[in-house]
């Protein structure tokens, strides 16, 4: 998304934005300098985020839709900061295969866009399962690939960029277990699912899949995936773990090879690993931030993993209800803040890159769950990101797990948020989007934080 420089045109636009915001009581003249309570702010959130300038993003010219890049610890588009409020919807490709369910893909993009969300993380894999993309090694279902083409094409219509994950650690949608099964069927001497990371033939299977996806020419847009700015980044794997090697060496070697492989094919797009963010043996002084002792034994190592050449930004997930206790507790919010702050600090001091908290949420199936707690949790995550954003820190953004349209209850794992049925949550999301949109439009990057004060308009360093 191309952002205008802060010249005359930009100032006029910003004055219009802020004036319009004032007339709708969404942002009053002194609300930037004197922060009201979150509850009061949410009551002033308009139904449309266009008051905050998000509508302007949607009207950008075709030739201004350019690649997201990384400069130091910031994401940038056309030399402008690009802070992210996004979401996950993993099943988009599978739903897009059939005309009877394809409309749900459009619906989720419409709803997410209406509250200002700009990035979606979804699967670019489905191995030997129902509506499989890859039916066997390097054998693809063209109809499913066309469905993925539709997802990419439809995302662009709503100015939503995609993080495409290329494999799964878990058995859902095939995962590393399916690669091992393929190996067994081919007569390979493999037994553990973790052989996926080490056996040369299984590595080749994966690398061939990467090559096929990255070199895919979209049948709807005629744009090769590796040339398409709609794709924000490639994710090597969803939540990789290698419990057979707690030292982390096996997974580290796999990350090194695969990050290089992706970059060799596509040097333009960003690459991330997809890990959950657990600290490992290389940083024993940081393991105190892990949610439990088991987290140090799953073969991942947050800082070491992200020091690999070719990895552009860090990822971490946040699941206090899964990692600590299922029972809802205020202590979960304390963990979340501590977890996020430690990772943002490490991304700044040790990695020199942005970090995205690529999954976070709370399950409605948890004992003690209620919508107010969910809104408080989301608000807590958003506040922590904003505290980094205001300083030009490494907190690059967050992705809710997960946003669904109506009529997809059968896919809900308990974490689904249907925005049209959740007005209070929608207000929280919309407010975060509006705040980040203002940062993105009003700040000049020069590859570091450089928001310039405008005497009568806006001081971005003031408290919200």
From TrEMBL:
* Signal peptide bounds: 1-26
The protein in question is named: mannan endo-1,4-beta-mannosidase
Location in the cell: Secreted
Q: What is its EC number?
A: 3.2.1.78
Region labeled Disordered — which residues? 27-49
For this protein, the record's InterPro entries field holds: GH, Glyco_hydro_5, MAN-like
From what superkingdom does this record's organism come? Eukaryota
Which segments constitute the Glycoside hydrolase family domain? Answer: 66-401
State the Pfam families in the record: GH5_mannosidase (PF26410)
Keyword field:
Glycosidase, Hydrolase, Secreted, Signal
Q: Does the keyword Signal apply?
A: yes
Which GO terms fall under molecular function for this chain's record?
Answer: mannan endo-1,4-beta-mannosidase activity
Task: Name where it mostly resides.
Answer: secreted
Q: Which reaction equation describes what this protein catalyses?
A: Random hydrolysis of (1->4)-beta-D-mannosidic linkages in mannans, galactomannans and glucomannans
Stated family: Belongs to the glycosyl hydrolase 5 (cellulase A) family.
In the record, biological process GO terms are: polysaccharide catabolic process
From start to end residue, where is composition biased (Basic and acidic residues)? 30-43
List cellular component terms (GO). Answer: extracellular region
Q: What PANTHER family does the annotation carry?
A: MANNAN ENDO-1,4-BETA-MANNOSIDASE, PTHR31451
Alphabetized Gene3D superfamilies for the sequence: Glycosidases
